[in-house]
Amino acid sequence: MLLAVLKYIEEKHYCPHCSGDLKLCHAPPVHVGDGLGWGSEFLFVCLNDECPLFTKGWEYIENQYGHVGSYRYMEIPDSKESYNMMVVGKDAFTGSLVDVEALKRQSVRYQRLQEALAALEHCVERQELEPVLTVLLDDSASIDSRQRAVKMLEPLNDIACIEPLRNHVFTIPHLKEEVSRAIGKVLAGNFLKECPYCFELIKARATVCKHCQRELAV
Q1: 178/149 Cα distance (integer angstroms)
Q2: What is the mean pLDDT of residues 40-60?
Q3: How far is residue 15's CA from residue 86's CA, in Å, rounded to a whole number?
Q4: Residue closest to 135 by CA, chosen among 151, 156, 114, 154
């Protein structure tokens, strides 16, 4: 889908009624004509409020059908189909504009995740923590991939994983538990523990936290 959208946003489509640029919008789930879908997740729509089709459509619909409405010109991507689509208000489709920048960010995030997934196979032997964290901290990654990444925390034994993992909100309870257990093993492997008061890392045998000066239970 991302590749298709990125292709669409580079295309130029123009309204035959006002010569204005057509905007890429998310398609409504139901076709107003037959009650079925549009055959596309996206539509090119003229959102120019000064377009003659739109400005004249109000009077036409009121006279013809006796209710409030107008028309916006639209085209279906990768198709020769076009429609004068009836709308009931000026805000129609303005809230369904495709957020190009958000899609570009999503595309970058998706590519980064794919690279991290490919790197998981060799990250332990290469002592690379970053791919593991990328997979674990991306909620769009599959649960199987994230559980696979969790298992690599202990052999990597890198305390740099602790802060980002502790600050991430894991919404899947059993994954959260697995991450917490893995952190415990990393701490033990480095002879460290977390202060229960300030959460800074301290030596496992410390009786007083060197950061907050609180006494610790032995």
Answers
A1: 11
A2: 94
A3: 15
A4: 114
